[in-house]
Design a protein that fits this description.
Elements: H1 3-11, H2 17-37, H3 39-50, H4 55-83, H5 85-104, H6 109-137, H7 143-154, H8 157-168, H9 177-184, H10 190-193, H11 200-205, H12 209-227, H13 254-278, H14 281-287, H15 292-302, H16 306-316, H17 323-341, H18 346-373, H19 380-394, H20 398-408, H21 411-432, H22 445-449
Helix pairs in contact: 2-6, 2-7, 2-8, 2-9, 3-9, 4-5, 4-6, 4-19, 4-20, 5-6, 5-9, 6-18, 6-19, 7-16, 7-18, 8-15, 13-18, 13-19, 13-21, 14-15, 15-18, 16-18, 17-18, 17-21, 20-21
């Protein structure tokens, strides 16, 4: 079997119980991954009050977490290209759940810093593996909307964690520990992930054609039982042969290199803008005169915008071919972020905070779909991990940038910086990003590898 035969067979499948089973497994993992990813931002208010942790120390711990995310994205992505999507996904979930529990029992700041670093490794690895797995298993006409739906359901973990933190953090000196226990429950997602198949695209790319055929046949049989007779595969014009790409150095050569640099820029500015807002708003509000409970309440309410924001990607992602929605959403996020920093009116804080929370998740869902589409199967996880991980690595400096701006220029200028990050993300994609969308993954490879 050739890739030109496999792709039409996967892409002609109607969305069925099989695809929903994949969604459930990934969504469950995303729920706890996203809850855990934001856990330190909420626990930090308790650490600041009860453990007397300074803003500078919070910045150090946050940076350690992002250093771990970089390593997890790069090496987790490479592992998934070598060992398989399913196996790597299982190990990443076990990893971040185990080390999230270490956060909960940490006796001092040094152990918390180490635990956040190791948790970040698993969280980031899980993300890049999951988005690639969805891209390779979902029909081409539904790749974008399925990424949006998976993220939307997973994002329920953020307000769930925010309200959970609001309930437990103010209870006393050890209330913050329960925030990390919540993240460790993510290991329960293995009950669904263990039932998922390996990606036939990965099997075929690794030369295991018989296993790819058997896996694909089993998928087709399951879909047939669910929806009835399948439509015939579409005729696909054979693509021009492309050079084999298997090494990390191939990510920075030719057309593939241009795509990698564009995605690195988009992920760097997205991450700086994203975490500049979500990681710092609770602490900045508390430090600016709002009570601990009130700052956590503002944060918890605004995070409700995350879920409908990702669902907006369901509507626009496949219809408008990713690039244009990415640019528009980044610009709107910049406007909302700037408006948030220029007001101290309670209603305005909630409205513009909701807007930022809404649109940053629309952007994230779009970029989750966009990134793996731009790489061939042999490097899809590695390339996605390098782009995603470099964004996390850049954010090691993010907390110190925010801390310096806040200390030197004041509260409003932090949000000028956040808005500028989102404007730069829009510019990078507008100038250098290709259009993708309703196209077979294999048909996107020649331009990438040429």
């Amino acid at each position: 079997m050739l890739a030109s035969e496999l792709s039409p067979r996967l892409d002609r499948l109607p969305v069925s119980r099989f695809h929903r089973r994949i969604m459930y497994g990934v969504c469950f993992a995303f729920f706890f991954e996203l809850a855990d990813l934001n856990s330190f931002a909420y626990a930090a208010t308790g650490l600041q009050k009860y453990q007397h942790m300074s803003v500078g120390t919070i910045a150090n711990v946050t940076s350690a977490s992002f250093a771990g995310m970089f390593l997890g994205a790069v090496f987790g992505g490479r592992l998934a290209d070598r060992l398989g999507r399913r196996r790597a996904l299982i190990w990443s979930v076990v990893w971040f759940s185990l080390f999230s529990l270490l956060n909960a029992v940490a006796p001092n700041t040094a152990v918390i810093t180490l635990a956040r670093f190791l948790t970040g490794v698993g969280l980031s690895a899980m993300t890049v593996i999951a988005i690639t797995y969805l891209a390779e298993l979902m029909p081409q006409s539904h790749r974008g909307r399925m990424q949006g739906a998976a993220l939307a359901i997973g994002l329920i973990g953020i307000p769930a964690m925010a309200f959970f933190a609001r309930a437990v953090v103010p209870t006393g000196p050890d209330g913050w520990r329960w925030v990390f226990v919540g993240g460790a429950v993510g290991v329960a997602s293995l009950a669904l992930i263990l039932r998922l198949p390996e990606s036939p695209r990965w099997l075929l790319d690794r030369g295991r054609a018989e296993e790819a055929e058997a896996t694909l046949a089993a998928i087709e049989a399951e879909v047939t039982r669910s929806v009835g007779e399948l439509p015939p595969p579409a005729a696909v014009t054979a693509a021009a042969p492309v050079p084999a790409v298997t090494g990390v150095k191939d990510l920075f050569r030719g057309g593939l290199g241009g795509r990698t640099l564009m995605l690195v820029g988009a992920w760097v500015f997205q991450t700086l803008g994203f975490y500049g807002f979500t990681s710092w708003v609770p602490v900045l509000l508390a430090d600016h005169g709002f009570t601990l409970t009130k700052s956590l309440t503002f944060t918890a309410v605004t995070t409700i915008g995350a879920v409908p924001g990702a669902l907006l990607a369901w509507v626009i992602s496949d219809r408008y071919r990713r690039k244009s929605p990415l640019i528009a959403v980044a610009v709107v996020t910049a406007v909302c972020g700037l408006a948030y920093g220029l007001t101290f009116n309670t209603a305005a804080i909630i409205v513009f905070g909701f807007g930022v929370s809404f649109f940053i998740q629309t952007f994230a869902a779009l970029l989750y779909a966009y990134t793996p589409e731009l790489y061939p199967t042999s490097l899809r996880n590695t390339g996605s991990g390098v782009a995603y991980g470099t964004g996390r690595l850049a954010n090691i400096a993010g907390p110190f940038i925010v801390s310096a701006i806040y200390g030197g220029s004041g509260y409003p200028w932090v949000f000028v910086y956040i808005a500028a990050c989102w404007a730069c993300a829009a510019l990078v994609i507008a100038l250098f990003g290709p259009r993708t969308g309703d196209v077979a993954l294999e048909q996107l490879q020649p331009a990438a590898s040429g």
